[in-house]
Amino acid sequence: MPTLLNLGLSRRAVLQLGAAGAAVLLVPGPIRRRAGAQVASPHFLVVFEADGGWDPTQVFDVHDPNDATDGIDVDNPGQPPSVITTMGGLTYVSNPVTRPAVDAFFTTWASRTAVVNGVNTRSTSHDQSRQLVLTGYLDPTRADFAVMSAHHSGADLPLPHLLVSGASFAGPYAGLSGRLGGAMFEAVEYDSVGDDQRAFSGLGEAYIQQALEFERLADANAPSGLVTGRLAEFYDGNVRGDTLAQLATSVNVGSNDPAQLATTLGQAFRNGLTTSVTVGRFGGFDTHDDNTEQNLRFQNVFTFLNGFLTALAAEPAAGQAGSLLDQTTIVVCSEFGRTPRLNSDLGKDHHPWNSYLLIGKRVRGGVTVGRTDGNQKGVKVSFSTGQPDDTGQIIDVVNVVAGIMTLVGANASEYMPGVPPFTGFIGA
Questions:
Q1: What Cα–Cα distance (Å) separates residue 115 from each residue in 60, 277, 330, 424?
Q2: Is the pLDDT confidence value at 5 over 90?
Q3: What pTM does this model have?
């Protein structure tokens, strides 16, 4: 392998390393990137966040709108009544008047979609629940499932996890995740011309080379790998920076158009830029005062998803025949649910029982798994089938995160030791 001592570090290379790879120097030594993961059959992941805490009973968590005995308000007074509908084997709550995009979505995509209900987030705090839903833990050293998936499926790519917007928790894999925009774009587009631009002088580069030489000499008398392991990661980050510079300027991540986003991500996936993407696309679900606002929020979510999936299905696959949708899993989640009953302001407050939506590769399509009771609390289910089972377990967020890691082909126990994965949403 080339060493840093003969690379001739340029100003551009150092800046690129700072933007895309410097954080790898903080990664613990035992964590090593694995080359060639998922090359033959790539598995991409796109995560959409619905910020504010959606009301699962409006769409996902099916309770009879006409049954007042279960203590769950599906519709607000004066609102057109909702009905229970089954499409492609998947049962959901439909209201063609207030959220027609939901019906349009399931008409097309139900056979490739799974809904997971009755998931305990263990919190009703926005920040805590957001972290729990994505990582399974209230531990800042834990990574979220999008970043862990990137480590498993594409750790050698220039930017394995692309954070477009929203929350992300990189944990021990900080060097694998980055937001492609702002300062990072300035770094990868750096041209070293002009007095107002950051630059390393030739003398500065000489000092860098000298420091690296000292590290090499120190390593000669140090325990094996003490320094060279970090030098190897430093070199790896530099190479990733060079590749990122070549690819990033063609990636437009600022579009609010679902077809444009699908095209952009298609280019990023096929060009080997990234394997996992997080998008904080949807908001406004924190409806304490007027729960009818949930209708517009869900209308926006499913309108966007329908357009995104339609465009992704038209994008060519990476490295083989077929559609990019066949290689991609889409996860849509919010930080928690909302209370079973309306409050005095006809809104709903925070509630820890939640739902996830999954679409695409390896998703067991046409199923609603997990269940809540008449108080909208999760019941015990079989972790393999997702159906109620008195000998089963309550689904916790940590089980869903482990299940998503299993879905993308990882050994969940390597990332989350001792956690049984919920696999009821995983298909062939």
A1: 7, 21, 12, 10
A2: no
A3: 0.80
